[in-house]
């Protein structure tokens, strides 16, 4: 009986080693390969039992991880290329802006001097005033290019979002564009948060002006601020009665120099980098 029991134990041990332990070892080995980044490795098995199903599940998991990894690598590569293009574009913008900024200043100065020498009824005054307007517009474009190129370091400090919103609205509400726009505020008391107040104010101003222009100077603009549901963030919402942003343009609104405005009415820089 003892000998028969020993033989039976050896048979069972051999079966367990071949039927259970070896497949598990293959799964452990595969897990090690995947942990090292070799997600192409697949567990091979001809079995049709639960261990085979486990191996199939492992293979599917590895394939899913590889697919996600490939997408992440592609996205990262695209972002790096985009950053490099933006850096080159910024250097080019700064160079061009510096080269033409001083001549524009000289042109403005001499046109103003010429305007002072003309009589109020001189027919040339209208032409010189147009020259001043267009040259000033060119300087504004140059300023936008310089702002885009500089990308100054943010000055982070504790600031009140509501104060910044109120200050921004006070700055823009007296413009002619806002005469027929009703501004509604929903600004409950909020805690101060860390931010660059100056740059955030510029973002708010850009959004508010764009919203008002989309309403063609008439309609209702609602500005609201609140704490998020998870109590981790402050949400700021701008709602207007304008035409909205098309689905096609939503993918482009953060691209530098993108604008839907007519030529001469918007450079398309600033909000996406502030």
Describe the structure.
- It comes from marine sediment metagenome.
- It catalyses: ATP + protein L-histidine = ADP + protein N-phospho-L-histidine.
- Keywords: Kinase, Phosphoprotein, Transferase.
- This is histidine kinase.
- It is an enzyme of class 2 (transferase).
- This protein is mostly helical.
- The chain folds into 3 domains: 72 residues, no CATH class; 61 residues, Helix Hairpins, CATH 1.10.287; 87 residues, Heat Shock Protein 90 (2-Layer Sandwich).
- Helices cover 59% and strands 11% of the residues.
- The chain is built from 6 helices and 5 strands, in the order H-H-H-E-H-E-E-H-E-E-H.
- The strands form 2 sheets. Strands 2-4-5 form a 3-stranded mixed β-sheet, covered by helices on one side. A two-stranded antiparallel sheet has the order 1-3.
- Helix 2 packs antiparallel against helix 3 and helix 4 crosses helix 5.
- The chain is elongated and about 125 Å long.
């Amino acid at each position: 009986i003892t000998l028969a029991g020993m033989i039976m134990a050896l048979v069972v041990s051999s079966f367990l080693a071949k039927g259970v332990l070896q497949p598990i070892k293959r799964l452990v080995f595969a897990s090690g390969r995947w942990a090292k980044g070799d997600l192409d490795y697949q567990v091979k098995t001809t079995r049709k039992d639960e261990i085979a199903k486990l191996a199939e599940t492992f293979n599917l998991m590895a394939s899913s991880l590889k697919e996600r990894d490939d997408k992440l690598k592609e996205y990262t590569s695209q972002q790096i290329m985009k950053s490099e293009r933006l850096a080159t574009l910024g250097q080019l913008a700064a160079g061009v802006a510096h080269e033409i900024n001083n001549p524009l200043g000289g042109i403005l100065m001499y046109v103003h001097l010429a305007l002072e020498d003309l009589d109020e009824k001189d027919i040339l005054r209208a032409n010189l005033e147009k020259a001043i307007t267009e040259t000033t517009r060119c300087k504004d474009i140059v300023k936008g290019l310089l702002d885009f190129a500089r990308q100054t370091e943010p000055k982070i400090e504790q600031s009140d979002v509501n104060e910044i919103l109120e200050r921004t609205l006070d700055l823009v509400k007296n413009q002619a564009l806002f005469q027929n726009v009703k501004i509604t505020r929903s600004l409950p008391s909020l805690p101060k948060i860390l931010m660059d107040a100056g740059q955030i104010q510029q973002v708010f101003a850009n959004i508010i002006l764009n919203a008002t222009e989309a309403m063609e100077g008439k309609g209702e603009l609602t500005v609201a601020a609140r704490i998020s549901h998870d109590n981790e963030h402050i949400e700021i919402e701008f709602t207007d009665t304008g035409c909205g942003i098309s689905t096609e343009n939503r993918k482009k609104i953060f691209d530098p120099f993108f604008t839907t405005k007519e030529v001469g009415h918007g450079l398309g820089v600033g909000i996406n980098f502030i």
